[in-house]
Design goal:
By secondary structure, this protein is of the alpha/beta class. It is built from ten helices and 15 strands. Helix 3 packs across helix 9 and helix 6 packs parallel to helix 7 (about 230-240).
Length: about 350
């Protein structure tokens, strides 16, 4: 028997998520024979990302599949295959996959909404969810394939101190752009300027974003990489140059609400400005991840790319870590290491 602790959804959050929305259940993993195409994985490291919160909403409130009451919370994790009925995923294979908040998960890789990312032999679990993670790949493809940022352009990034945003800022800088980041504290803004090399950072909690953008981008913005949506999106639209590009990666400001994520107030601004708005997900570019990871590795090893990781320990820390993310009480990419998993029991 394989002991298996799992975090389930106790209730749909009403606004900001709280600890009472989650329930920790002790039990055993289903160890019945795997069906063809199934694998069993041990979850070693969990990535705690904003999109998890979106799946906690009631079914009518989100576009990702909602987690039912009593269902196990899901999120990206770095795992090791411990049993397999899938030829493409032999025992011992290490992967980053949309798994569940539990010690051991049974998965059907071919049916998941997000592609499975292989972990190279020389890559640690932390690195697979850090500098080479789907979040970093999202930033890479958003800036290179979608925005197609060019030297000399002015690029604005919201959620700039986050796992996706910070890498997006640095890739834009490496492309020769002038980069402005928006973050939620003086410490995060200082880190963006000192470690990530952004040209300027705006603390949206204590500064007027509109006033600062008028000063920092008097001639307008060529590219807006949007992680947040809401009023920040509107302020960016107001400053977009003609033929500007808006890359929509996430809408964090809307995840706590039930009404969906609103767009710009005046779409005629988009029409007359010939502004392009494009959303995307990292799975759109799965065939190019080897090239992307090679570029990320080259920049990282040359100290041209920085990443700050906030590493928490223990499966029990998952809900509080997600709550900290939305409170801004984190310092970088949030990872939870499952280093207290119980050992398998003998019968």
């Amino acid at each position: 028997m394989i002991p298996n602790r799992r975090w389930t959804l106790a209730r749909h959050p009403a606004g900001a998520a709280s600890i009472d929305d989650f329930a920790l259940v002790d039990g055993q993993c289903d160890d019945s024979p795997l069906q063809d195409g199934e694998i069993m994985v041990r979850n070693h490291v969990f990535s705690v990302a904003p999109t998890i919160r979106n799946r906690l909403n009631a079914p009518t409130a989100g576009h990702r599949s909602a987690i039912p009451i009593g269902g196990v919370i899901g999120g990206m994790a770095a795992c090791e295959v411990i049993a397999s009925a899938h030829a493409g995923f032999p025992v011992g294979r290490r992967i980053v996959v949309l798994s569940q908040w539990e010690d051991v998960s049974r998965l059907r890789p071919d049916a998941l909404p997000i592609p499975v990312f292989p972990i190279a032999e020389d890559m640690s679990f932390d690195a697979a969810l850090g500098i080479y993670s789907p979040n970093s790949l999202t930033a890479y493809f958003g800036m290179t394939a979608i925005a197609q940022v060019r030297p000399g352009e002015t690029v604005l990034v919201s959620g700039a101190a986050g796992s996706v945003g910070s890498v997006a800022c640095q890739i834009a800088r490496l492309a020769g752009a002038r980069v402005i980041g928006i973050a939620g504290s003086a410490d995060k803004c200082r880190w963006l300027e000192e470690a990530c090399g952004v040209d300027a950072a705006i603390d949206y909690r204590h500064e007027s974003v509109a006033d600062r953008l008028r000063v920092l981008a008097p001639d307008g913005i060529h590219v807006f990489f949007d992680n947040v949506g809401g009023e920040i999106l509107q302020l960016a639209v107001d400053r977009m140059r003609r033929h500007g590009r808006i890359v929509v990666c996430g809408q964090i400001s809307a995840y706590d609400g039930a009404g969906g994520a609103a767009g710009p107030r005046d779409m005629m601004r988009i029409v007359y400005g010939s502004i392009r708005i494009q959303g995307f997900v990292v799975g759109d570019h799965i065939d190019d991840i080897d090239v992307a990871r090679a570029d990320l590795r080259r920049w990282y090893e040359a100290d041209a790319l920085s990443m700050r990781v906030d590493r928490r320990r223990g499966l029990g820390q998952l809900p509080s870590t997600l709550i900290d993310l939305f409170r801004g009480a984190n310092a970088g990419t949030l990872l939870v290491v499952n280093d207290d998993a119980p050992a398998a029991k003998t019968q």
